[in-house]
Amino acid sequence: MNNVTKSLKVIAMVCVTLLSVNVHAQGDYFSKIKPAKKLSVGLNFGLTNSYTDAPQENSGNSFGLGFKYSVSHSIGIRASFNSGTIAGDRSEETTNDDFSFKNSFSTIDLSAVFTLGNVSFLRSARNLQYFATIGLGSMSNDATGKNNDPSLNSSYDESEVFVPIGFGLKYNLNDNFDIGLNTQFNFTTSDNIDAFNYDVFANKANDYFTQTGITLSYKFGTDKSQTSHLDWINPVESIYNDIDSINKNLKTLMADSDGDGVGDYFDKDNETPDGVKTYGDGTSVDTDGDGVPDSNDKEIFSLVTDVDADGVAKDDDGDGVPNELDADNNTAPGALVDAKGNAIELKEFSAYDCDNMTLPTIMFDNGSSRISSSSYASLYTLAEKMRMCPSLSVTATGYTRSKSGERLAMKRANSIIDHLEANYGVERGRISLDYTADTDVDYASKRIDFTKTGK
Fold first, then answer.
1. Residues in Cβ contact with 49 at an 8 Å cutoff, skipping those fewer than 6 apart
2. pLDDT by residue (tens digit) across 192-207?
3. What Rg do the C-alpha atoms of the chain give, in angstroms?
4. Could you give all domains of the chain from N- to C-terminal order, each with its CATH number?
5. Which of these, 186, 185, 212, 170, lies nearest to 40 by C-alpha position?
6. First-to-final CA distance of the chain
7. Which of 108-112, 324-328, 372-376, 413-417 has the lowest average pLDDT?
8. What are phi and psi of 303, to 5 degrees?
9. Torsion 184-189-195-196 (CA) sign
10. For residues 242 and 31, what is the distance between their CA atoms, to the nearest angstrom?
11. Which backbone phi and psi does 85 adopt, to 5 degrees?
12. C-beta atoms surrounding 407 within 10 Å
């Protein structure tokens, strides 16, 4: 009896410890892992067989209730209560042995439950699982042994410690119910559960019995958000699913259908033509912000945004001043205008001294060969002098000390010649080109000087 009392105390202490752990652990999950059910209660019914001093088995039955808490995916703690009968006789021992017994028992035990194979790197979770159990419990007996001679009848009604060891399999019906088939061996610490305890017999082996049956379990949790039970979750499968999801997202992030170096996920324009430079968002580079990508823009440094499809500033009156900067969009064709597009009125020359005249200097922006509108008046004056003096030829002189400077001076001179020819009909042959290394002249890198070369 002392052993039974000690066992019950141990079981009670373990239960209290588990409840404390459960209370402390509520909600203690990693932020990205969905909580799972950890509790289940099961009803079982089955047949019993005894292995005692009365070896001729007469099957009994048992039924019970179990409460289980899953500590992890593979380990659980189960508290069980069972009640039933075991029976047997000695009819096969000797022809005249008429001993038989029946024991109406009840048990309470606490067992560790080990779920096998639900944590796997090779396959996903299945609906069929194997499990094994081992524990410690207390058994109450009400055994009666009978003989033809009533004076030889015996009984046994003590409680004792027993060790339950079992195995079985269970099937996951749905998120709420399991059904299982299991066998449990109950090893007692005495030789008396069959009430066959006569001193004349020297059989000292302890008795044990088995329970084989089916169990229907209801699975539940502490939160409505918990759907699956922990026993039926393969944590490795969850990791693999996360890896697959990451790989799919990476493929989306790394995909670049237009080959512009910007992933489709971030690309605002997935149809960028080959070879076109783009910004970090995948849109084509537009240096001047006029809405025409540099790849199609004939003037990538436009000062205005009112441009045509080629990125060229619109100039309705053709005076060389873009519409956005033009104060007068209706200037007469061929009229000389200032930087704002206003027409410049020129006084007529009454006469020219073709032998003694001053020729203009044309200024350019650094590194540019484009004629600014502020130079149009000077070029008009030069063209008029050459028109009034048909024998006059001029030399355009640029200042440079390098080959690149020579090329820039040539481009500037050609821009002037093109302008004079296109707008005023000055023959190209009347203008010659020259270079000089004399850079002591003011603004030498920006100017083209004109001098008379003939009459």
1. 57, 59, 60, 86, 209, 210, 212
2. 898 887 665 555 678 9
3. 53
4. 2-23+34-242 (2.40.160.20), 259-314 (no CATH), 346-454 (3.30.1330.60)
5. 170
6. 143
7. 324-328
8. -90, -5
9. positive
10. 14
11. -135, 150
12. 13
Return the amino acid letter for 101: F
Backbone angles phi and psi of 426, in degrees to 5: -75, 130
Contacts of 92 (CB under 8 A, 6+ apart): 55, 56
Structure tokens at 123: 């396959």
Tell me which amino acid residue 437 is: A
Sheet holding 431-436, edge to edge: 361-363, 447-454, 393-399, 431-436
Whole-number Å distance between alpha carbons of 141 and 207: 13
Distance set, CA 295 to CA 261, 274, 304 (Å)? 17, 10, 18
Point out which residues pair with 436 in neighbouring strands. 399
Tokens for 404? 């690149």
Instruction: Please say whether the beta carbons of 112 and 14 come within 8 A.
Output: no
The token pair that represents 300 in the structure block: 């990538």
Per residue in 301-339, pLDDT tens? 777 777 777 777 777 777 777 777 777 777 777 777 776
| Residue 263, Cβ density class (10 Å: 0-12 exposed, 13-18 middle, ≥19 buried) | middle
Query: Residue 264 carries which DSSP code?
Result: T
Which residue do the tokens 């063209």 mark? 383
| pTM higher than 0.85 | no
